[in-house]
Write a structure and sequence with these properties.
mainly beta, about 120 residues, globular, 4-stranded antiparallel β-sheet, 7-stranded mixed β-sheet
């Protein structure tokens, strides 16, 4: 089992940047595929990006491609989400998710572990 704790959210103006972190407990972090999802008020939770446990391959939603970057540091049990050129439509609660030895998938129901979420608000 793994516990996930997100941090780094906040209020930023359009065009600005934020870096989210997700710290995981446990000694097997390197065997977990990690992903970021987000949920805006009144909307379903949507896939933002994911990074494979095995190859380190990364995947992005079209809406964030070229602006967001996911990375992981297995020595620190942490995954990061660097968000640049933020837009008001990026406003949402951002969640970190994990699943062991799985390919990156975009369906939230397939992830076993979730953080509590961190609010990102982008003002226009």
């Amino acid at each position: 089992q793994v516990q996930l704790v997100e941090s780094g959210g906040g209020l930023v103006q359009a065009g600005g940047s934020l870096r989210l972190s997700c710290a995981a407990s446990g000694r097997t972090f390197s065997t977990y595929t990690m992903a970021w999802f987000r949920q805006a008020p009144g909307k379903e939770r949507e896939f933002v990006t994911g990074i494979s446990w095995s190859s380190g391959s990364t995947y992005y939603a079209d809406s964030v491609k070229g602006r967001f970057t996911i990375s992981r540091d297995n020595a620190k049990n942490t995954v990061y989400l660097q968000m640049n050129s933020l837009k008001p439509e990026d406003t949402a609660v951002y969640y970190c998710a994990a699943d062991r030895e799985r390919a990156v998938v975009r369906t939230p129901q397939l992830y076993d572990y979730w953080g509590q979420g961190t609010q990102v608000t982008v003002s226009s």
